Amino acid sequence: MVFRTSWILLYLFSLHLVGIYLFTRGFLLSRLSLSTLASCSTSSSDPCTLPATHKRTVLLIIDALRFDFLSPHPPEPHSPYHHNVLTLPRELTAKQPRNSFLFNAHADPPTTTLQRIKGLVTGSLPTFVDMGYNFGGASIAEDSIIIQLQQANKTIAFMGDDTWLTVFPTAFHPEMSHDFDSFNVEDLHTVDNGVIANLFPLLTNSTHAHTWDFLIGHFLGVDHVGHRVGPDHPTMLEKQQQMNDVLKRVVDALDEDTLLIVLGDHGMDRKGDHGGDGDLEVSAGLWIYSKGPPLSSQKPPTSHLPHKTFPGEPSPHRSVQQIDLVPTLSLLLGLPIPFNNLGTVIPELFWRDRVGSDYAKALDINARQVHSYLGAYRNSSSGAELDGVWRALEASWTTFYASNSKDSPEAAVHFTRLALETCRSLWARFNAVLMVGGLVLLALSLLVGWAAYGCSRSIAEWDSWLASLGRAIALSSGVGAALGVVAHTLSRNVHAFDGVTIYQAILFGASVSSSARVLASAPPPRLLRPSWSAPILLLHSIAFLSNSYTFWEDRAVPFFLPFTLAPPLLAALSAPTTTNTTTNSHLRRRLRLRILAFAALFAACVRLMAVSTVCREEQHPWCSVTFFSGSGAAEPPPLVRALLVPAAALVPRAIRRVLATSRSDNGVAALVLPYVLPTALVAGSACWLLEWLDASGSGIGAYAHAYMDLRTARTVLAWTSVVAALVGTVFWAFFPVALHVSTTTTTTSSTQKTKKKTTEVRVLGFANAFGAPFVVLWALALAPVWLAAQPSAQITLALATTAVLAHLELVDAARDARALRATSSAALARLQQQQQQQPGTQGVAVTFDEIAPLALLAQLAFFASGHQATLASLQWKSAFVLAPTVSYPFAPILVVLNTFGPTVLVALAAPLLGIWNVAPLAAAAAPGPGPGPIPASSSDPQQQREQEQETTGPTSQARIATLGATRAALGTTQYFAALLLGSALSAAWLRRHLMVWKVFAPRYMFGAATLLLVDAVVLVAGLWFGVGRVDRKRKPPPEKPVR
């Protein structure tokens, strides 16, 4: 029955999926990688490289080495944990200014290790969507300094982060290659110790000492400390001291023919994370040192030396682009510059005479290489991307080519930097046709969803609309697919349609044609009822056109939420207090108090959830982090630690208390709520408390370590939570009933000789037979989200659970108030007569004003659980809840649960709006869409069961409840679809905006992922499994003859 009622949501999901796919393919296409390799051609008179200055190179990468960790003038106030600790580079730079150079290197986002490795060896720019490959990248096919070393028959040694073997599986000498697991962020020392153990033998006295030409060592300890406890922690001090000692030993072991390069692949934010484009994430340290011959004879002109001020530092420092290392290092080693390079050689390392002649030669080689790359790209399949900027690039190249030797350095730098900035602006290639196609489908999906929502007012209208819609959708999809093939064939020679495949044309044609057919079959739109929530949805959607609003969306959502309380409050205030009967008057007063109390509770939970915040970079200094104990510490606040386990124990009690009001805390609820759910939640909270003890380094943590292995204890607790949730779900699947049936037999005697036995059947929980089991299932879904959430997020989940329950009771009380108000009107009698003449016209109670608060609460749960629509807010620590290392598929699932779980969980409660406090009885007259159906007037349970059995499916209370749940699910997905359409429109319209990749693109990506997850979870878990399973198990209580 449920699938027959709700399959239209599956069709909507497919429209969302296709629309998101087309828009994303048009908005976030990958950069084309050219496979051409640079080489020194004997037929060309132009040099391709310079004589090598060093025979060997040691490249040491200290992962997440932020520039201020090396800076001679770190930000003030100085941190005792990461400032003025790693001091060797600045000391040698001060003592040997011609041999040692320290730079603030800009790392292009996304600041994830795999993408930065690609940039460091190829000199090219990563794309925004490349971040998704950080957990499993493919080998690098384009030209790189590693490939150039291989072409020159150089021997490469490697030790450290195993990501290098992923991208260069055959590049390293098999006897000098030592890789270590890179994703075990809780292991702070194994990788570093492994690098140290294999590095120094190659520098001193091992069999392979000095047989290598290029040595790579990739340390991970600093990065792991940042992820684990943040940069402001004593462990960071210890790790940087270790790195400083390692560098001292390396310098001592170097010979004069070896060049030393030490760098960070990226920085880290104040919490120790990275991935985005914040100033702290893109500022990496770079130190270049020659123990032998000086790298420079004198300082180049200041016009060639740009400076940049690190946030908080008192003075600017010499800055370069991180990819500038690629052409610089290639020429220092006598190698051709990799073909796809966009970096520019660093002046200090080539200024070896008064006029910088070597620097001019290096720039000439560099500029010609960049020009060759741009020309090859222009002639490729993606060359049209450069059409709009090619004239400016050619003009700059002509200026350089025609300049004399005195002016060529400035002209060459201008050309290479212009090429870099131009390619940066084009790093995501926009396909306008695909973007428009995606926007059209997202808009059509919104119209189809609202048409379906409008048809779900009554069972008769819904069944009539869906009767032949499935076949019509299939036929129209086929016709649209055929038209898509024809359109693609005819547009092959149209330049605007380049990049559109036939499969995309088929998807677009089928989706548009079927959507048009659905809209054509829908009844004419009725006059919409006034809604308090419609203006909120409109404002929420169009506000994404403002980058300032997107910055502060986490503050706007709790501002919107109180306005959604207006409809129930108006219902309470408009209820009359004087009636003809004392009973009705008392009942109205009680309903008014219930509405006011639950509205106050809902508003209080919203306000408390809004207290939990993390701050975007753009929000400083007007934002304070409360999710963690401080902006630089990744640990929960003391109050959160104190409340964590009590909250885990009280949430199940609160759920059971709400169910007890309708005596629905029986059956499966009597097992799950007192036993299974507390076990899962308390174990999840205890797991995170042990994580805090393990990472804090406090005396309590050391004491706990003395008695147990905290990592093992955390793993056991985490799996205990998982197993408890799985056991509860399996039990629920077999017994999704929250009823308790009891019989009592009494004997009465009418005379001395005759006795009469009477059997009485009592059913507890019958009034909420649909809603109570679903709440139990929802509570079981809370358990894995709770486990993946960090401590502060668990507190906000407890508040969100309370807010959901308060909203359900608030909606129920408001419906009762409207029903009582309607009972005294003559309209009720007329409506009853109409429904007797036209069966199946019972109204469905769910309104958009009841749905919008849950949708907004779901949005608030995302922000309150420590997230923002930025890559930097991803909480990677959750990936290691179930295991100390990255384990598939658990690690990605846990990250998804941590990021999107709170939002999807609250959205999953939407079907409850249609089934809460609904008994499986036959439906009688209803006073319209407001209050919902009124149960049969008979007080005899046996007569009510007979009425239900005699009532046909379309008019049964079960059908009304199922349709109400479907309507609520439709309204919820429509809210998220409207937000996605707004964010997609803003990203498309502002695609050349300065903030597009910092603000609009991440908001669209998070919105797209959220909508697809809400669609899938609400449909599959909520309607098909949850409501469907309850409906299939719906049975009348056993009949006992009355004797």
User: Can you count the helices?
Assistant: 35
Overall mean confidence score, pLDDT: 85
Q: What would you call the shape?
A: globular
Instruction: Provide the helix percentage.
Output: 40-55%
Q: Which band does the percent of strand residues land in?
A: 5-15%
Structural class label: alpha/beta
Spatially, the strands of the biggest sheet line up as: 4-3-5-1-6-7-2-9-8
- Report the C-alpha radius of gyration, rounded: 34 Å
Query: How far apart are the termini?
Result: 37 Å
User: How would you characterize the largest beta sheet?
Assistant: 9 strands, mixed
The beta-strand count equals 11
Q: Low-confidence runs (pLDDT<50, min 5 residues)?
A: 131-137, 833-841, 922-955, 1036-1043
Walk me through the structure:
By secondary structure, the chain is of the alpha/beta class. It contains 35 helices and 11 strands. The strands form 2 sheets. Strands 4-3-5-1-6-7-2-9-8 form a 9-stranded mixed sheet, sandwiched between helices. Strands 10-11 form a two-stranded antiparallel sheet. Helix 5 (163-167) links the parallel strand 3 (156-161) and strand 4 (177-180). It is globular and about 125 Å long. Mean pLDDT is 85; it is low at 131-137, 833-841, 922-955 and 1036-1043.
